[in-house]
Amino acid sequence: MSEQSNKPPRKAAAPKNRAPRATAAKSATPKTRERSSTRKPARTVRLTPEQVRDRAYFLYLERGRTNGDDQADWYRAEQELLESATA
Predict the structure, then answer these.
(1) How many domains does the chain have?
(2) Interhelix angle for 49-62 vs 70-86, to 10°?
């Protein structure tokens, strides 16, 4: 005769409200990031306003102390200081 177990009958599992997972196609070779040997790592250069001001003043003196180009001197001073710091 059939034996009855002491376990209660199993209930069907309730469906889960999850979206099916999208599976990405796996490539045969893993993707790795290649570094160029000629590229230097990025470096943050911080210029102080005093550094830029001093260089802009010397540019003003080089121009013969003519007024009206203070913003151009400031921009050029920033560019020169950044170039010399990263070189």
Answers:
(1) 1
(2) 120
